[in-house]
Amino acid sequence: MLLTLKVVDKDGNSKAVTEGEGDITLVHREEYQNGDQIILTSSEKNIFLKVQVDDALGSAYVYITKNEIVYKIPDTEGRRSLSPKTFTGNIHLLSARAAAKEEIGNYRNLAVNVMDQHGDTGCYPHASANVETRGESVFAAKNAIDGVIENHSHGEWPYSSWGINMREDAEFKLEFGRSVLAEEIHLYTRADFPHDNWWQRVTLTFSDGSNREWELEKSDKAHILVLEGKKIEWLMLHNLIKAEDPSPFPALTQIEVYGREV
């Protein structure tokens, strides 16, 4: 399998590039500018890769359904949901490799993706929602699958969350890009009390057409739902019933889906 990593500017001009079979790295020795993008291409699609678009962000274990994946370097506002070390400085280490057979078969969190973005990128897992508070990056749906469970504050990293802007009809969707076997779901609701409210009950709808109502409580710990090997391609979190509390601000810090590949 041939992989290519490339950094390009806003006009598509190449700034750094590398390619190779199976396992590649790229050192980019410039500060990022507005409009810069990282482009990953693969001679194969519908495969598992381990990808690092920034050394401060860490590696993403992803399933790609396209031969070309475009990662847009976030602007100043977009970086508010990331560590302040991310995409800064004048030297950056990028990498990509095929996932090993043993990695693919492991029991793991199937939901986490530190390089998730808005839109149909062909890179999964992918989070989306019908509302994100004021369109700010620190309240984007992707924050709920970034692997960070710290939930005792809000509005800046590492307290990024999915914010619903007080919408009663808020919905969050998590897509895997293929069928997986889900064993457990862990929810970390934001717990910046007394600023925050919390959800007493939520509904999960799955790609197989089934639904589960889930009773929650006021807590900063993980809420755990056992599914026992449910085969799904996506799930939706909706019908979010908040508690009787003066605060109008419930939010989701993280969703984890533990299981295996089908």
Tell me what you see in this structure.
With 262 residues, this protein is an all-beta fold. Helices cover 2% and strands 47% of the residues. The chain folds into two domains: 105 residues; 144 residues, Galactose-binding domain-like (Jelly Rolls). It is built from one helix and 17 strands. The chain is globular, with a radius of gyration of 19 Å. It starts with a strand and ends with a strand.
Helix content: under 10%
Strand content: over 45%
The CATH topology of the largest domain is: Jelly Rolls
> How many structural domains does the protein architecture include?
2
- Which residues form runs of ≥5 with pLDDT under 50? none
Topology, number of strands: 17
* Element-by-element helix/strand order: EEEEEEEEHEEEEEEEEE
What distance lies between the first and last C-alpha atoms, to the nearest angstrom?
23 Å
CATH-defined superfamily of the largest domain: Galactose-binding domain-like
Helix count, per DSSP?
A: 1
Q: Would you identify the CATH architecture of the largest domain?
A: Sandwich
Radius of gyration: 19 Å
Report the principal-axis shape: globular
Q: Characterize the main sheet.
A: 8 strands, antiparallel
Assigned CATH class of the largest domain: Mainly Beta
Q: Provide the residue-averaged pLDDT.
A: 97
Structural class: mainly beta
